[in-house]
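Dear H.,

Thanks for agreeing to be a second pair of eyes. The structure we're designing against is below in token form, covering all 305 positions.
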């Protein structure tokens, strides 16, 4: 049930920070307004409330509710805030609009921290306890855990496989569609495939998951779009937060999304450790001892050189 704007605590920060904080409690029609404000951040808002409502196909009351939900007294207050914040931006198209070329590095660090924290907090709010338990349960009984992704998602898959292997789980990561298909064709009901895709539109990942699912394997999706191809190919979907599908990618990728994906991977990992108990604790001790000896020998070899 949507929380009344009268009971919401006050908000500080930029318009985009406020949208990130409150997006999860907005109704569908209210999100249309929030999406428009986000997509036009940094631009003056010259439309009247009637003109904006007509343009977006929503009522004036909806716009007023969104304004109050974002911590403004009403639409006029929102317009004034936007006007005060509108100024020439830098020329970098692949960084969030909150971060300005004229900011000091300390100011930039604070804004970047706010963006990343908003993504993690949003992901936490969207966690479904039942789905999370289903994912951990399936992985705890799996013969093999296969991670598939491309681009930034592939990097998270590599990290996940490395993490799970250290605890004694049979885990592997694959980043190209050809290999993903080969692996999926050989999976059985004893296996789990985890597909990681921020947008959920990565066709190779979705296809591999569908094939694995047809062969009886349990498929788990980590994506920001619960209606995407990757999500629909999964038995269990864990959703990361995203204010809109037209987000501004940081450095050509979705940094907030990647951190949220890594957060869920770590959460699944900890859940598996606790589920397996002493077995994984023993494996971690063995791994730690082996790595300690490995680096000790490397140090000796360098000394001989």
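And this is the sequence the design step returned. I haven't edited it by hand at all.
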């Amino acid at each position: 049930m949507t929380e009344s704007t009268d009971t919401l605590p006050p908000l500080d920060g930029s318009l985009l920070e406020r949208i990130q904080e409150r997006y999860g409690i907005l109704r569908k029609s209210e999100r249309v307004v929030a999406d428009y404000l986000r997509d036009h951040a940094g631009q003056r808002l010259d439309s009247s409330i009637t003109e904006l409502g007509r343009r977006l196909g929503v009522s004036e009351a909806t716009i007023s509710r969104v304004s109050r939900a974002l911590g403004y007294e009403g639409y006029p207050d929102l317009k004034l805030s936007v006007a005060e914040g509108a100024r020439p931006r830098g020329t970098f198209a692949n960084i969030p609009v909150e971060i300005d070329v004229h900011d000091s590095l300390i100011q930039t660090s604070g804004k970047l921290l706010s963006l990343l924290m908003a993504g993690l907090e949003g992901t936490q709010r969207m966690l479904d306890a039942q789905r999370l338990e289903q994912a951990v349960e399936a992985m705890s009984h799996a013969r093999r855990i296969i991670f598939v992704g491309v681009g930034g998602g592939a990097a998270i898959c590599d990290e996940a496989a490395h993490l799970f292997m250290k605890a004694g789980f049979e885990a592997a990561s694959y980043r190209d569609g050809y290999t993903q298909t080969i692996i999926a064709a050989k999976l059985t009901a004893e296996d789990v495939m985890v597909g990681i895709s921020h947008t959920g539109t990565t066709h190779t990942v979705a296809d591999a998951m569908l094939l694995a699912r047809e062969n009886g394997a349990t498929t788990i999706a980590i994506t920001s779009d619960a209606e995407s191809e990757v999500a629909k190919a999964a038995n269990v979907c864990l959703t990361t937060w995203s204010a809109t599908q037209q987000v501004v990618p940081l450095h050509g990728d979705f940094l907030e999304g990647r951190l949220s994906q890594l957060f869920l991977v770590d959460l699944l990992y900890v859940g598996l450790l606790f589920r397996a108990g002493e077995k994984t604790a023993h494996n971690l001790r063995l791994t730690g001892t082996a790595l300690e000896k490995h680096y000790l020998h490397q140090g000796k070899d360098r000394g001989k050189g």
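Two observations from my side: The mean pLDDT is 83. The first strand starts at residue 144 and ends at 148.

Warmly,
E.
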